[in-house]
Write a structure and sequence with these properties.
Length: 306
């Protein structure tokens, strides 16, 4: 009887593990397939972009799409049919990536620093009361269009003289505003996990609040800082509406550039668009590898409890 019960339990356990692995494999396929399709399309010639049935692997692979976006094709400006919306020539891939890196890194750093201090005050001193975190979350839930038009009108006022329109500062400030609530909520979960006894012990030894933050709090929340930074960075890197509304001429981000690959005779230029998208994900991959140790710790932080 006991042996039959053990066999039944073993079969259920095997079935549960198999189902979990199958689901994870399916989810991995769903997650990675768009990346595979984008990389594959970046090496396809135009006749394979719209082929049916779809061509999974390029039959005639080419690097012309990368030459188009890097402006290293014939004449140094790309082919004749490669035009941007608004009758502009294809920009190089370097400038949009540079602009996106500057805006995303600075705005993410500011949001994480401010969010960490704000999360600490909420966790330890209940700043703003119990509803204050939810009020911050309501700001994050607002669609970007709600602030895009008012901010554009405000930046266009005469006394600014164009100081905030279509430049880094004018895009960094709104990015910090929309990602700060997200940073606060992420860091708040990490702050709650730090025992207050450690802070009390440090203060009993004569350490002030700033020293406690430097020597006790910050070393313990480094994984949380890494997780919060990379998620905030991804939000800023992939944001389109504010970048399109508040910039797009002198300052061109990756998302704005991706929307501009069109030609009058062909339509959407899927090959150059996919090539540029492939190049655009490289900084995210590099950043992930650079802080992967902290990411693993940060994702598991607080999951194992006594």
């Amino acid at each position: 009887m006991a042996q039959a019960y053990g066999m039944t339990r073993s079969r259920k356990s095997f079935f549960a593990k198999t189902s979990s692995y199958m689901f994870l494999l399916f989810w991995l396929f769903v997650t990675l397939f768009p990346i595979f399709w984008m990389v594959s399309t970046s090496f396809k010639p135009p006749q394979e972009w719209f082929a049916w049935p779809p061509i999974w692997i390029p039959v005639e692979p080419t690097i012309n799409n990368y030459e188009e976006i890097l402006a290293i094709g014939p004449g140094g400006t790309g082919s004749e049919n490669t035009k941007l919306a608004g009758a502009q020539q294809v920009l190089t891939a370097i400038l949009p990536i540079r602009d996106s890196l500057i805006v995303a890194i600075i705005s993410s750093t500011i949001a994480v620093v401010l969010g960490s201090f704000l999360a600490y005050t909420i966790s330890r001193y209940q700043t703003g009361g119990k509803r204050y975190p939810y009020i911050l979350l309501m700001i994050r839930m607002m669609p970007p269009i709600v602030i895009a038009v008012p901010v554009l009108a405000y930046f266009s006022l005469p006394w600014w003289r164009g100081a905030l329109h279509d430049n880094y500062l004018g895009l960094i400030l709104p990015y910090v505003l929309i990602t700060l609530p997200y940073a606060v909520w992420l860091m708040l979960s990490f702050m709650h996990e730090i025992p207050r006894e450690l802070e009390n012990a440090a203060r009993m030894m004569g350490a002030g609040r700033i020293l406690v933050m430097r020597k006790v709090i910050i070393p313990l929340i480094r994984p949380g800082l890494a997780v919060t930074f990379i998620f905030t960075f991804i939000l800023n890197w992939s944001e389109f509406l504010l970048a399109y509304t508040l910039a797009g001429q002198k300052l061109v981000t990756v998302t704005v550039q991706l929307s501009q690959y069109e030609a009058a005779d062909v339509g959407r230029l899927y090959g150059p668009q996919a090539a540029f998208g492939t190049i655009a994900i490289i900084p995210l991959i590099i950043l992930g590898f650079m802080i992967q140790k902290h990411l693993v710790t940060g994702f598991s932080f607080g999951m194992v409890r006594k």
